[in-house]
Amino acid sequence: MSKRSIPNVDWANQLENAIRQFVKEKLELIMREEIKNFLEIEQAGTPNMRNGYYQRNLDTQYGRIEGLLVPRDRNGEFQTQLFAPYQRHTGWLEEAIIRMYQSGMSTREIGKFIERILGSTYSPATISRITDVVKEDIEKWHARPLHQRYSVLYLDGLYVKLRRDTVEKEVIYVVLGVNEEGYREILDFFVGGQESAYVWQEILQQLYKRGVKEVLLGVFDGLPGLEEAFKAVYPKADVQRCVVHKVRNTLSRVRKKDQFEMAEDLKLIYRSPNKEIALEMFQQFQSKWSHKYPREVQSWANELDVLLTFMDYPSSIRSVIYTTNAIERTIKEIRKRLKPMNSLSSLEAAEKVVYLTIQDFNEKWAGRKLRGFAEAQEALQRMFEERYC
């Protein structure tokens, strides 16, 4: 450390000490007023009176306050409202730990951070126990009742490294719903195993039991068996295969020199103003590319119905239902929060981080309709009435 930097460190330490002393004085002032009111009002007419002080330490967001003078009464009945009798730190610590955990810090990193600011050692096990306060919230959230109608259900997942004796990649399933008024909400998530249509069907069945009875459209990628699993739970709903996923998969099998041209030709299909023109554009695409890439073109022909479902819906929402982009942004943020952890120590650790991330999204979306759904609301209501009434 250079000589020039030493005065800066001393000044910073002096400032921290001054702040802690100021907070200590104010806390003691509040407690003196508390016991004064307690004895004057609640203990009027009794022989109870003040009986000095006892000292204790208290960890705060300003650091550790040592030797805090807590007043006491002769009968031992007074209790300050600033903290519980055996509380050694204010509630900020739990909240800070949970927020740090949510941001992707490991329990070990959080422990080191707390040790730096408070001088106390918090083991990874202690940090984990503090973050366990959200476990009950998670259980209640998984069981909460849901709306009856959802215009769209988006299904998607991401793989994360999860430790169960050994570290392996496992999937996090995520369901995003847009209700009949156009508001988004993550309805549920499930952590574990390899992605399968069977598990997706179980998740959808749970949503049905929790109240999601009527759905117009399911939007997801081309996982084998997923369309059948979705229709098994919601037989009256339409299916939209993610066009963006399909385009990417197609172009990955095309020679590099042809990729741009084919991508432009595919845009003419899914960006057509209506289905009739889209079918005409596909005929041209088929004639142009079938000879050179017969399997790729045939794949589009086989799936064209579920790739163009979105064109049966109001034009104002087509740009947000022909792809899973609406949920992929959420998936990207979950992955970002999990990335610093390298691998998750347990299934419970993964659930805590995903749950806290999802709550941020749901709070943000609560007062904001998804683009285009306000204009499409009447048309979507008619579609619900035609299918389910």
Automatic annotation (TrEMBL):
Q: What is the native source organism of this protein?
A: Parageobacillus thermoglucosidasius
Q: Which UniProt keywords are listed?
A: DNA recombination, DNA-binding, Plasmid, Transposable element, Transposition
> This protein's superkingdom?
Bacteria
Q: Which family does it belong to?
A: Belongs to the transposase mutator family.
Q: Kindly name one Pfam family recorded for this protein.
A: Transposase_mut
Q: What is the lineage of its organism?
A: Bacteria, Bacillati, Bacillota, Bacilli, Bacillales
Query: Could you provide one GO biological process annotation from this protein's UniProt record?
Result: DNA transposition
The answer to whether UniProt assigns keyword Protease to this entry is no
So what does this one do? Answer: Required for the transposition of the insertion element.
Name of the protein this chain belongs to? Mutator family transposase
Which molecular function GO terms apply here? DNA binding; transposase activity
